[in-house]
Request: fold
Amino acid sequence: ELTAELREMEELKKENERLTELLNVKGSLGSYDYLTARVIGKAPGSWFAEFTVNVGEEDGIKEGMIVITEDGLVGKITAVHSTYSKVMSIIEITSGVPAMLERSRDTCVVKGRASELGDQDTLLDLEYLPVAADVMPGDKVITSGHGGVFPKGLIIGNVAEVSADMSDVRIVSGVDFAHLEEVTIITTVFEEVD
Reply:
């Protein structure tokens, strides 16, 4: 009995630590409202390229709302039901996020790589960099705000590899897309700009 109670207390302690970290996200969100949600399901496979959270229409969730963790951008809400919602993460191969290199301010697009299961260290690609872009390993990549879908300044990840001709730039996200349990939803729908 004591062993079972100890295990339960350890699990509650870990959950508390994760939720505390999620609450710390508020300071980086400016004036946006947000809601913390639990992940309750995911598509088959190792990665959380598409997953389900336990909040929906009844909680005020709408399609297009942005999903994050304390470690960075996760994705956006793509379908909403009364008590749950579907999320497409930025590692999904069909995703694309307008981005910029924080240091050089060069704009680009971050594309998912979730089809390459097992490629844990290079989940994202940087595409459409200007020809004279200034990019190097370690550069922080953030949302640019272009297109209106994602607010400006959310952390996406860091540049891990740059090929000699800059045709292949890989990014590592700070988000652990293999072990998502709780996420934060920014409860504002950003208007897409053509």
